[in-house]
Design goal:
260 residues; mainly alpha; Rhopdopsin 7-helix transmembrane proteins; two-stranded antiparallel sheet; elongated; disordered C terminus
Length: 260
């Protein structure tokens, strides 16, 4: 359930970042997408894109934290890994609802301002602009990102310690520990890089480097979006086998008729 929700969030985040950051950066006056941004004068649409940009940052970090807690739960209660109690499902649904809705306490303010997509003659590309400066945009988000990153780091360390203390019944403990280390390091690395880049953007908001960091951040967002699914596919043999069965070509019996 968590991974399904995470997948839906990742799709929304990816296409929003594609429209706001990637496509605007390569759209010049001679581009076929020039008319798309030129006609985008609906304030509600542009404000929505702005709000989603910051809202999904909250949600991505929140869902990553939930997955870290769920991973720790599965490792500590292995007998519940296959069958999930109703009480736990309810708790998870409430947690997902909070992760999805609570960021509105901050991001709802973007609908009160007039955001615009303007063409930058110097850069020969479009840019999203709104009255709030970068410090105000990250006023609460940067603290949430930092706190969640620290908590995720502690939870992931607890997951590693839990696995390390498990008895080696199958003879694959070293391999499992190695997989866990790689998985936890990649997850924490992407979170730390995203948080560090956001802090750097705030510090260097008046310098020319801010524009470069702006174009790096979408790739970090993609890292948050695709790290969990790829790790699940790479380290989960059950998931890998199911996906192979889904995309494997089925053998079709060909009936040959021999007639005179």
């Amino acid at each position: 359930m968590l991974y399904i929700f995470d997948g839906c969030i990742n799709i929304i985040t990816y296409f929003n970042a594609f429209i706001v950051f990637r496509l605007t950066f390569i759209t010049s006056r001679d581009s076929i997408c020039f008319g798309f941004y030129k006609s985008m004068d609906n304030n509600i649409v542009i404000n929505s894109l702005t709000a989603i940009t910051y809202h999904m940052a909250y949600v991505q970090y929140g869902i990553t934290l939930l997955i870290s807690f769920d991973r720790l739960r599965v490792m500590r209660r292995r007998h519940l890994a296959e069958s999930t109690p109703i009480r736990l499902i309810v708790i998870m649904l409430v947690a997902i609802f909070c992760v999805l809705v609570l960021p509105l306490l901050d991001t709802i303010r973007y609908f009160r301002y007039e955001s615009k997509i303007n063409y930058n003659e110097e850069l020969e590309s479009y840019q999203l602009s709104h009255p709030l400066n970068l410090y105000d945009c990250f006023q609460y988000l940067i603290w949430v990102m930092g706190i969640i990153t620290c908590i995720s780091l502690l939870v992931n360390c607890a997951s590693y310690i839990t696995v390390r203390r498990l008895p080696d019944l199958s003879g694959y403990k070293k391999r499992i520990l190695f997989n866990i280390i790689i998985m936890l390091l990649l997850t924490c690395f992407v979170q730390i890089v995203g948080c560090a880049l956001s802090i750097t953007r705030i510090i260097l908001r008046e310098s020319s480097s801010a524009g470069i960091l702006l174009h790096i951040l979408p790739f970090v967002s993609d890292g948050l979006s695709f790290t969990q699914p790829y790790l699940l596919w790479f380290f989960s043999h059950k998931m890998k086998n199911k996906m192979k069965q889904m995309f494997r070509k089925k053998n079709v019996a060909v009936v040959t008729s021999f007639t005179n």
